[in-house]
Amino acid sequence: MAFQHMLFEVANGIATVTFNRPKALNALNAELLAEFGQALAEIDADEAIRVLVLTGSGDKAFVAGADITELATFNALQGKQFARTGQTVISRIQELSIPAIAAVNGYALGGGMEIALACDFIYAAENAMFGLPEITLGIIPGFGGTQRLPRLIGQNMAKEMIFTGKMIPAQEALRLGIANRVCPPDQLLPEVLKTAGQIASRGKVALRAAKQAVNRGLNVDLASGCHIENDAFALCMASADAREGTTAFLEKRKPVFKGSLNG
Ligand code: DAK
What we know:
Elements: E1 6-11, E2 14-19, H1 30-45, E3 51-56, E4 61-63, H2 68-71, H3 76-95, E5 100-104, E6 107-109, H4 111-118, E7 121-125, E8 129-131, H5 145-153, H6 155-164, E9 167-169, H7 170-176, E10 181-183, H8 185-200, H9 204-217, H10 222-237, H11 240-250
The chain binds 4-(N,N-dimethylamino)cinnamoyl-COA.
């Protein structure tokens, strides 16, 4: 798959998408969003892909937000189309059946931070900067930032970031729980790929069930969440992967998961 504004690579069950508009700090224009949506659809349909990694090209930015040059030219209809594509694409990251990891290698601002927040977790380079600066442009986050950030770090911390538009460095993002880990810039991708490799070796049925149980459970009360977990657990128990995992343990060997329900 070749794209104009993204690099796309698959190796060992790990798909890596690199946002690639370095002259504009990988800012999101309409074409890039559409390409990203297309890539996500293909990733979701490919049974061999077990983990998605998102990063930015160059050493300065993950994604510096929406392309302000383009944003400034939109009429209402184009703005609506941009919003629709963006929201669909960003929800799709969260709803992917496989885990998604953001490797934030510089600025993750506005829509860029919102993409990272839609991933299952974030590793950041020491030089990463996170922020939702929309308020400085007279708008508010439009790709889920007002919803996902408070759920992640609590409403007061999120409101301070959203109301001021200020940027925070990687270590502060780590302290707040936005980033799981901070790495030297040259170690970021190797560390992400190491974790992605561990995840890719697990059973796909169980990964899907675990991701759905956490995501769905977060929107309901504890008792309902435990019911969701119960159903997801039952699905795993019926899978060939669960038979392989338990048999491999008893036979003192490593499991070979096929990612299938039946097998
Ligand atoms: N868009 C377009 N170009 C950008 C850009 C952006 N977001 N960010 C940087 N660039 C370009 C710069 O214009 C510059 O281009 P040249 O002048 O070299 O041609 C080049 O990238 C390098 O940037 P700087 O020279 O500014 O680099 P610095 O190191 O000095 O500063 C910076 C880095 C990241 C602090 C600064 O570039 C900056 O503040 N950038 C803008 C950050 C920002 O405000 N991003 C937009 C956030 S708002 C919507 C839903 C969502 C959204 C919109 C609508 N709907 C539902 C309709 C999303 C909105 C956002 O993301």
